[in-house]
Amino acid sequence: EAAFLSGHFGDLIDVRAEEKRREAAGHMEGLLGITPERYVCDMHPKYVSAQPLREGKTQATVYSAMQLQQKKIQHHHAHILSVMAEHHLSERVLGVAYDGTGYGDDGTIWGGEFLLCDGVSYTRAGHLLSVAMAGGDIVAKDAYASAEAYLFAAEQAGYLKGEEHPFTGKAIMKYLSDRQPADGTPDAVLRFPESRTQEDAPREADLKEKIRQKELRRAALSRDMGVAASSSVGRLFDAAAVILGLGEANHFEGQLACRLQYAAQRYERRKLKGDGSAFLAEDAGGQSAPAFGADTQGPTVLPFPIKKEPTRGGCVYIADTLRLVASLVRERNAILREMAFAFPSEEEKAQDTRNGTDKDDTRKAQMFSERMDELAFAFHEAIACMTATMCDIICGDEVPVALSGGTFANGLILRLLLPKLAAKGYTVYMNEKVPCGDGGLALGQLYAATF
């Protein structure tokens, strides 16, 4: 048997994807000489793929949910099924699906899933904590909104105090007070002393609007109005990137996740260069471990606890992302306190010039950047440790593990995770012939139709 996949349609909420889909359907019918008998699509009610094809300029068959045996497959289940299809797996697997977004069968947004899959059926055995987010689909682009949602939830859970908030807390109040705009508008919303990119830094004229949006989102979160719960790994990466000053918006899909990965790899390369040996080694138990010199401090460790919650049919394991975010904020604030003079104000610089002193701002900024890189690495390590632990809690090494979803395009995550799974005795399968992102979903949906 063989599977033939069409080209990528792009964003399936975009109406322009409908025309591409219609053209592809007609092309595939003519090329392969087939007439569709079954129709499989995503569960998302707004995706054009979930709508019947209508007559257009091509000769595509007019599809109708009434005419065909339509089957809707949950997004992350399809990710895991794509791995099963590639490797001809029919037995039970534990699927780990990490990505930016997918419509869950409970109506919330999924994206950090542990699914026990038995062919066309599955059980959601574990997932990242669902966090309420305000802003709708724009959250995928506005990473600051993701960070804001996590910080608000962490405060509500008691993991963070208001003064620890990285954008308004006391840790950077001196920086902010030295840099108040001339009109007195609070500068705490989107300016960070450690920001290493000016690409999405706001103009002064935009600041009041940014503050207004922030206040509206916080009001929505406080009142639980117009918010959507999300367990997305992608949004968690966005929040971490914002907290570490790597940017505030995704100008293309996965932009800040890439920046976070590159920051972590910079830390890794520095340790490799300074130590003269492979950074990642295996200890006696086969665990991935940093190979530092005897006088070298190890990387920061961020906690990522897992809790068990009862469900109607049993239980589900939830990774507490709020504890992770709160720890990341505290580490960042501690570094800011240590480097209180790393970012002198304009007045201080002028005084230095008058006194003939030089504080070497460039080197201090570089040192701060390096510390943020260390936290970026610690974040990746926490994700890898949590993932391996979650697999162990859910099923031990009794079933193979299938990894899929766009997050697994991150080579560092895989490099940290795979040795941990191997040490626990797991057989691990991944996408090899189709993309781990949404470009491979169609294969998983097709595989579902064979059951």
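(ticket continues) Second input and output from the same batch:
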Amino acid sequence: MSFNIAINLALINLCEILPQEKPLWFDIYYANRVFGESYLKGISANTPYKQIAQGLERDSNGEYKLNYFAGPEAKQAADDNHGLNCDHLGMAYVAMKWGQYIGDLELEEFADNQVDWVLGSNPLGYCSLIGAGSRNPVIMAEYFGKPKLDGLIPNGIVGGENEEPEWWGDGPSSGKDWLPHNTAYLAVLSVLDNLAELNGEILDGDNAVPNADVKIFLDKKLVSRLKFNDQGEFGPVKLAPQRKYKIIVEKGKNKIVKVSSLLSSERESYNI
């Protein structure tokens, strides 16, 4: 998988396991929040296909400039300065995990855009998953008489002399197939575009409240109606992702209203 995402995933995991009253939790939460808002969403919003950018670099005037693709030095530096597909896919996975934690639908849209980029929504129209799509790129194996196996994912698009996207399939910069691309692809597909699950628990102090009614609405339309059990629990109920739901809990004359944005594969629990 992309080399850098282990750090991001560890920081997200720390947010999940540390008590929120700890000062360290807030520091880690803030770092994750800035990364999600300013880097994942912020920079990709300024790129033509909403793909993750390769970074910011100073130009000859000392001004910072956004690099959409790696520059011509990537032809020599190969994997060290690149547009590796595992970066797009790995950061898509990070976005999904952080998006599930904070309930941010825009992060799932970011993840969708990264997968779309790899599968063909890019200026060259190349589907990098060999054997899929209508137009696959030439890869390095073909120059050495090796089979072009279905399922391979090569390194990806890099930048040319005028910062235009190019494909250097005869060398490792673009054309080298590499298992980390496939690892990241399978990881993000395991959480993307799947049904979400919603669970709930209702308590009065420390005591469970049984048999309360639960109504779940989407765009003012009732999509699910169920009851809490004798232990004051309901669910799991499977719901379409990338939607904002209104959950209404009623017991006698008492009513509680919650609004929840659910991402793919999210398992959200309410303690009401």
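Agent notes: The mean pLDDT is 86. The two ends are 38 Å apart (CA to CA). Closing as not reproducible unless the customer responds.
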